[in-house]
Each structure stands twice: as C-alpha cells, then as structure tokens.
Amino acid sequence: MPLNMDELNSTVKRASHISEPQIKANGRIPTPGEHSLDKMLRSTGCLRDVCDAISTAAAFDSSLLITGETGTGKELAARAIHEQSPRKLGPFIALNCSGVPEILLERELFGHERGADVGESTRLRSRVEAASGGTLFLNEIAELPATLQSKLFQFLRGQRTKRVGQQQSMESDTRVIAAATSNLHTAVHSGRFLSDLYNQLAVMVLRLPPLNERREEVPVLANFILCRLTPEFPRGKLRLAPDAIFALQRHQWPGNLRELENRMRRAVLMAEDTSITAADLELSVVDTLEVPTLKQARERVERELIHQALLQNRGNIIRTASVLGISRPTLYDLMRKLGIRKCNGDANGA
Fold first, then answer.
1. In this predicted model, what pLDDT tens digit does every residue of 173-217 receive, in sequence order?
2. Domain residue limits at 262
3. Residues 40 and 162 in one domain
4. HSE, side-chain direction, 13 A CA sphere, residue 113
5. Which end of the chain is more exposed for a tag (fewer CB within 10 A), N or C?
C-alpha cells in the first residue's frame, strides 16, 4: 500500500464532526504497519541515524518530542515508534493541536462530563482516555493554549486526568509523543510555551531532517514510493529516467516527503511509457541545472551506481564489489570518499 502522507497534516474538526465514532470503538485508529517511516527508511537504506533513533525511542516508555519541517514524516515516525514499542498492541491516537478553539480542544484532549454545561447531555470520552495502554500523538504541540499546557503537564507528572466538569480524576496509562514544526526553545524563552511542559516532553528529542539536507538519497526514496504505487497503476514496471534522477537530487523539496509522494503519484499517472521523466514529475532540469565539474559529475555517477548496487545486493559488500568489478577495499574507499552509508541487509561478507 502507498504511504498515506496526508495524515501528517490532518487537522482537528469541530466537536460535531471530530472522530468520536473512532474513539467510541475502543479508541482505536488504524495503525498500518506498512506505512511506517522506519520500515521505509530501512528498506531504502536511507537516513540510518533516524532509524536508529526510532529504535532507541521505542525501547523506552518516556515522553518524546519529534521536531522537523512540515512533511518530514513526524506522525509516521511516531507510529513507527509505537509499532516497535511494548505498547504496540494498544491504540495509537493522533490529535492536531493547531487551529482549534480552546474549549473544543480541551474537550477533545481531556473529555467532557455530561451536564458540565447547560444544554450538554452527552459524555465525551477524551483522547487521553482512548490512548490508555497505548500512545497519544499530539501534533503541533506549540499551538496548545497556555491553560491546556499546564493541564497536560499535570497529567504527564501523575498519569491522572479529569474530564471537563468532572470532580474526580481518573488514571490513564498513556505515553505521549509530541511534535512541533516551530522552535520550542524560542517559544519557551518568549513565555509562549511552558518550560516545565517542554522539559517533561523533551526527555528524548528526535529531529527529522528535511529532504534538502539529504538530496542524494531522494531517488532511492522515490523508487521505494514508486514500488508501492505500481500495484495501483498496473502498466508494467516503471523506472526513473536519468533526467528524473538528476531533477530529484537538485530540487529543494520545501514539502519534504509529502511533496515527494505527491509528485510521484502524478508522475505515475502522467508517464507515457515505462520511464518517468523530470517533466512527469513537473520538475525542470533547466531550472535546477548547475554545470558540474568533471570530478563532480564522476562522483555523482559513482555514488548512484554504488547506491543501486548495494540495494540490489542487500548491503553485501563482497557481492556489490564483484558486480561493480572492483575489489572490496576499493569499494570501502569509494564509499568513505562519497559519504555512502552501508545498507542494512545481508551482513554476510561485510
């Protein structure tokens, strides 16, 4: 199945439209393991440091803060952590704190007791309650109002919560993973974000780098997405044309992973034969073209060939060197010079 990158930018709807049926159904929201950011990165051999950080975070049960630009995969990372953690059989509940009136956000986050307000005759179960035994993901945590910041801090300290209008508190065994696109340090210093809450959330911090920091790996991620999309559009095996690979590496990627998948989806539909071109991706080679030196061009080709050979041979150094027609020491030297990390896969002969 394809990655559902749209989930990363989902927003909370008003009370009458918020996903209350999902919460009533044991509070479970589907957690498709095939959408895991960690699985995608491990399959492609990209961003090994992010994979390692996800595994480390999954092994602990403390609160966690994920930072990164829009579209870098913060919710996917949170799901990957949940799916690898001891809480994986419990629910994964996501809530976006951005752009919702405070009273509605409070009721969504902490629930609402019947009769708390005039005319209110229903009891609303909270996201905190729904996530008990599992993980609560709070996206855009910097947008949480000050009063709710304090209430969330108190919950994190004691794992007890009260619905709006409720007198007695309830226990809820919930792990909280928060995410922010803005700099929370700045928000703390300016007084817009509670320092105690920041310290409670940032027991561990996972930073997701934007694609423009690792553009040499974009074609590998694009191929991964292409393989996931191909069953949906059965028109034979598609591949990236050389100009597409070049354009993918040169593009700035302001929308990060979400933009990459959207461009790949359009390209699959637009491709007229078995090759996806830069035009299919709506990327201009001319706009991004910088004439490389001979050394840069040679290194670019070497890097791409080695990347592809390592992937095809599941990271086996001996087989990769044989396919490339070079010795193992020469391959190691080239990988070191070109900044290529060894793929995760068959360790034999490594």
1. 899 999 999 788 888 999 999 999 999 999 899 999 888 888 888
2. 211-290
3. yes
4. 11
5. N
